[in-house]
Amino acid sequence: MHILLIEDDLDLGRALQAALKVEGLSSEWLRRAADAPAAVDPAVVDCVLLDLTLPDGSGFDLLARWRASNNPVPIIVITARGAVEDRLRGLDGGADDFVIKPFATAELVSRIRAVLRRSARQTSERWTLGNLTIEPRSHRAARAGEPLDLSPREFQLLLALARDAGTVVPKGVIAQRLEPLGDPVDFASIEVHVSNLRRKIGAQAILTVRGVGYMLASA
Fold it and tell me: Which domains does the chain have, with CATH numbers?
């Protein structure tokens, strides 16, 4: 899973990137409002960590811009501004959580996982989809209680589909989710990985929508 971090503090930014890496989360770090994307691409970014006080602008303005365009990516505000009015403005403005500095990085990572679970419509660290169970944090999956022997790429693919179980995920979105920091995976490789994954979780578990992408059955 990929995190967009917008934070101007050098020490905190480095510490957060290191903590995210340990937890198996990739990240991109930006330090100015001007460098932030006009729209956050949900095909690439799973969650935004947004500082409110940036050297060239306000995080509130970024939050308002993204939510005005109905951008669905979860956003966690991280800030030293702990006044009630600031928290209310952030949450009412569309933030999914509000974390006051200083904070323990372990708590922040836990909050990230919580908003990602809500985004995927799951209630615990163990995701349940029909007879499949997926544990994103420990990179484990099982079918009808039997552990699945998945390659790292197969697990990434399963997670990319599970985030939107029951809906079609376009091939282009899958390609970006598999390589958020590099060149997108080519479609021919995706087809091979889908074929391999089907053999392990059941041919009917992944449906093909010709010319569009794939859908993981939700039940």
Answer: 2-119 (3.40.50.2300), 127-216 (1.10.10.10)
